[in-house]
């Protein structure tokens, strides 16, 4: 029996760590050919070693740059000839900052990566996708409800959901589906709470009904489902992966 994604080329941004890396490994195990990018090439190479038997194309890419995105996609097409699925995972996690102390530079960094980056990748890949292709975009529980002192981050994640729902309507008639995953408290190296450790981690563990942090692999399982045939009638959906989040003022992906 052939692997689920045999002969499928899947493009993943932010593949150097966390959810992006776990998803690359998951899809590799299901037979996919991978086009992986990240702003940190050393991290990207570490991911590639975990997918050693998989055909792959690697590139260090700042997704906010139209030219770098174009180069990456041209390189992918030059090597593999097609793109079948896209996982927009590259993003910058939040820092809690009161709005009056928020700099233009911080706004630009988050908006350009979390929102414009998805726009750049999506716009550039649409012409090369065919019926049956999918986009899966990473939002957050912070794209569903607000958090004090995280206005900029929430803006990008709310905006990404709106963008994705619009693209689901726009591309659906062409047989291309667009869905969103909204992770909650996930144990990743860039999670601000994980970096702080101690009480911050305990608050996250106690912030959902399962009483623990999620893993990147648990998100990757949902991403694979949303790309597969089992979800062929799922379009424009937001899948919350948060263990049953409780109302709280602490939010982090």
From TrEMBL:
Any one Gene Ontology biological process term? fatty acid biosynthetic process
Please, which domain of life does this record's source organism belong to?
Eukaryota
UniProt cross-references to Gene3D superfamilies, sorted A to Z: NAD(P)-binding Rossmann-like Domain
Q: Name one GO molecular function term.
A: quinone binding
Whether NADP counts among this entry's keywords is: yes
In which family does this protein belong, per the annotation? Answer: Belongs to the short-chain dehydrogenases/reductases (SDR) family.
Q: What is this protein called?
A: NAD(P)-binding protein
């Amino acid at each position: 029996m052939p692997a689920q994604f045999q002969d499928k080329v899947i493009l993943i941004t932010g593949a150097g760590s966390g959810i992006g890396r776990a998803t690359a490994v998951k899809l590799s195990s299901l037979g996919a050919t991978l086009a992986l990018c990240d702003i940190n090439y050393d991290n990207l190479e570490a991911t590639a070693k975990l997918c050693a038997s998989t055909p792959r194309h690697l590139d260090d890419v700042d997704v906010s740059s139209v030219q770098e995105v174009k180069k990456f996609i041209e390189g992918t097409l030059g090597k593999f000839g097609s793109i079948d699925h896209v996982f927009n995972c590259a993003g910058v996690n939040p820092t809690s900052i009161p709005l009056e102390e928020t700099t233009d530079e911080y706004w630009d960094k988050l908006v350009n990566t979390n929102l414009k980056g998805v726009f750049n990748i999506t716009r550039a890949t649409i012409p090369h996708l065919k019926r049956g292709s999918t986009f899966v975009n990473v939002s957050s529980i912070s794209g569903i409800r607000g958090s004090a002192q995280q206005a900029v981050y929430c803006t990008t994640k709310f905006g990404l959901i709106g963008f994705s729902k619009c693209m689901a309507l726009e591309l659906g008639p062409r047989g291309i589906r667009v869905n969103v995953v909204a992770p909650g408290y996930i144990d990743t190296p860039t999670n601000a709470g994980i970096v702080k450790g101690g009480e911050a981690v305990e608050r996250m563990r106690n912030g959902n009904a399962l009483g623990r942090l999620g893993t990147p692999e648990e998100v990757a399982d949902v991403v694979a489902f949303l790309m597969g045939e089992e979800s062929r009638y799922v379009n424009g959906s937001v899948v919350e992966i948060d263990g049953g989040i409780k109302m709280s003022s602490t939010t982090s992906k």
